Amino acid sequence: MSTNPPRTFSVAPMMDWTDRHCRAFHRVLSARALLYTEMVTANAVIFGDRDRLLGYSPQEHPIALQLGGSDPEALAKAAAICADWGYDEINLNVGCPSDRVQGGNFGACLMRDPALVASCVAAMKAEVALPVTVKCRLGVDEQDPEEALDALADSVLAAGADGLIVHARKAWLQGLSPKENRDIPPLDYDRVYRLKARLPGAPISLNGGLTTLETAQAQLAHVDGVMLGRAAYQQPELLLRVDSLFFGEADGHADAFAAVEAFEPYIAAHLAAGGRLHDITRHMLGLFPGRPGARAYRRHLAIEGVKPEAGLDVLRIAVNEVRRAEERRSLVA
Ligand SMILES: Cc1cc2nc3c(=O)[nH]c(=O)nc-3n(C[C@H](O)[C@H](O)[C@H](O)COP(=O)(O)O)c2cc1C
C-alpha cells in the first residue's frame, strides 16, 4: 500500500503539457512537488494502449494519475489498473468544461451530481488502497458556489475521498472555451478558505491563478496545499525553490543551468531509445525567462530542436546562448 503523498505543493494536471517528459523535467527541478498526469479517461485506461497512456519513469514519484469518467464501475476498474502501475494517488476530474468531456458526462458538469461523484469515489476506494482525491470547481453555470461546493465536498468526503483540490472559480459550460474557463470566471479564494474553515479535518488544496511561490505560500495560512498549473509550466524555474520553501528541505540545484545538466542523462536515454529531442525540450522553453539570451535559447530549440536528428548538442548550444549573454553582460557591467 502506498503512503499518502503530501499535497503541500503540486503541479496541476494539464492535457498535452504534463506528459511523462514534462514530469521528469519538473522532477529534476523539485524532488518533492506532487506531479499530476494529464487526464486519462477510465475507458482509455481499460481499453487503450497502457504503455503509452500510463508509462512513466520511476524518478517521477510521487505522481498522481488523473482519471476522467462518471461510471463508478469503469472508474474502479481503471483505478485498479493504475494502482498496479504504481501511481501514488488517483484523482478524479470534476473540473474540465470541454464539450467533449461534457458529451461524455464527466468533468465539471459533475458538479451538478455530487451523489454520482460520491459513488465514483466510493467505487474506486473499494478497489484500491491508494488515496483518491477529487479536483473540482466552485460550481458551474447558475449554481450558487456556496451550496454547490459544500454539496460536492460533503458527498465525496463522506464517500472516503482523501482530499479535495479546488480550482477557485466556477466553470461556464455554455459559451466559454476551456481556455476562457481558466481566466474569465472570477477567482474566489475566500470561498475555498470558507470550505476549509467549515471542514478543518479535510485536506483541501487551492488551485487557480497562483503565479509566484510567495503568493502560493501565503495560501497555506488558509488551506493545506497549493496546486500550480500554468505558472509551473510556463516558468518552470520557480520549481527550483519549492523543496526549501514548502517542504523545509534543501533544493536540489542552485540554478537552471545545473538542473538542465542533471537532466541530460534522461534526455540521452530518450534519444538512445529512438525518441526525439523536441518531445522533451518543448517543455523546457519557459526556462531563463527575461534573461539575456533567453530569446536565442528558445529560437535555437524551436528551429534546430525540432529536427528529427537533433541531439543533446542542440540543447547545450541553446543553453550556452544564455550563458554567453550573461557573461557578456557581466563584462560590460
Ligand atoms: C493546457 C492545459 C491543460 C489542462 N488540462 C487539465 C486536465 O487534464 N485536467 C484538469 O483537471 N485540469 C486541467 N487544466 C486546468 C489546470 O489543472 C488548472 O486547474 C488551471 O490551469 C488553473 O490553475 P493555474 O491558474 O495555476 O493554471 C488544464 C490547464 C491547461 C493550461
TrEMBL record:
Ranges that cross the membrane: none
Sample GO molecular function, one term: oxidoreductase activity
Span of the signal peptide: none
Keywords attached to this entry: Flavoprotein, FMN, NADP, Oxidoreductase, RNA-binding, tRNA processing, tRNA-binding
Active site: C96
Boundaries of every DUS-like FMN-binding domain copy: 11-302
Residues binding FMN, per UniProt: P13, M14, M15, Q66, K135, H167, N207, G208, G209, G229, R230
Keyword presence, Oxidoreductase: yes
Origin: domain of life: Bacteria
Protein name: tRNA-dihydrouridine(20/20a) synthase
Protein's organism: Ancylobacter polymorphus
Lineage per the UniProt record: Bacteria, Pseudomonadati, Pseudomonadota, Alphaproteobacteria, Hyphomicrobiales
Encoding gene (name): dusA
